Amino acid sequence: MACLHCFLGFLLLAARLPLDAARRFHDVLSNERTSGYTREHSQLTGWSSDENEWNEKLYPVWKKEDPRWKNSWRGGHVQAILTSDSPALVGSTITFVVDLVFPRCQKEDVNGNIVYENNCRNDTDPSPDLYVYNWTEESGWGNDHSQDHHHVFPDGKPFPHHPGWRRCSFVYVFHTLGQYLQKLGRGSARVSINTANVTLGPQLMEVIVYRRHHHVYVPIAKVKDVYVVTDHVPVFVTMYQKNDRNLSDETFLRDIPIMFSVLIHDPSHFLNESAINYKWNFGDNTGLFVSNNPTLNHTYVLNGTFSLNLTVQAAVPGPCPSP
């Protein structure tokens, strides 16, 4: 009986090996995290755990120094530019945008194909408007319904069949906080996340982009960027004085009003329904001024250097706590 137990144990171990060896999303997208990272963050709506398996057969994974990157795109290299409207006030929505920059003289046409720009090719080229990638002709993407099993993301989920989806030639995989989001798109992709349960401070967003190639996909670009979630209202103050010839030197004349204006960085309009108060201390012993107006005039009557102290308070409406 002891031998039987040993044999069964061996079978279980052997059965686990392929599963343990499978590549997972966090292996592909980032190694800059510690064990249990996902559990430290709340689930983002619509996102999935990066512990899921990655289909490497359909979406090959190349290391940074892999020579195949040199031939991942015809006529040069594609650059991915990742931007966001960070910093984001906790509870607001932050938006990320990835734009693909194609090699010189290449552009995306209205059908999602990549073409050469008119009058931007060498004289030896037979046509001023040849395709770089004619996705439909090269892969049968638009007509071959028998190949729908290739129309899936790296985790196996099928592509959403929204109108015009067959004109989307790129697959974007966004990764942050131990979670990922897959998106089918064209030369640009946009995603937004709510920061209500995101840890304060700097966080990392990473994106990998694949292009179609017959019935598989080819990596063409990777990019990452840091974004910030904060519990302090992001503000910027401008100062203006009539007839001031140099607004950038922050030098003003006494006895002439200076207009101070507060600009709040709130691209998702999270604070639209909030009551916002501004507390001004102009550093000249004139006291504290409280206002609900983001613009205030102040006149300095003495020469000197003064430090402005501004406090912005926003009361965000929300559900009342349980008694």
TrEMBL record:
Assigned keywords, A-Z: Glycoprotein, Membrane, Signal, Transmembrane, Transmembrane helix
Domain of life of the organism encoding this protein: Eukaryota
Topology of the protein relative to the lipid bilayer: Single-pass type I membrane protein
Signal peptide: 1-22
Domain PKD: 274-312
InterPro entries with a match to the protein in the record: Ig-like_fold, PKAT, PKD/Chitinase_dom, PKD_dom, PKD_dom_sf, PMEL_NMB_N
Main location: membrane
Stored Pfam families: PKD, PMEL_NMB_N
Gene Ontology CC, one term: early endosome membrane
Gene Ontology BP terms: cell adhesion
Gene3D superfamilies membership: Immunoglobulins
GO function terms (MF aspect): integrin binding
Subcellular location: Early endosome membrane; Melanosome membrane
Function: Could be a melanogenic enzyme.
Family label: Belongs to the PMEL/NMB family.
PANTHER family: MELANOCYTE PROTEIN PMEL 17-RELATED, TRANSMEMBRANE GLYCOPROTEIN NMB
Name of the protein in its database record: Transmembrane glycoprotein NMB
Organism: Neovison vison (American mink)
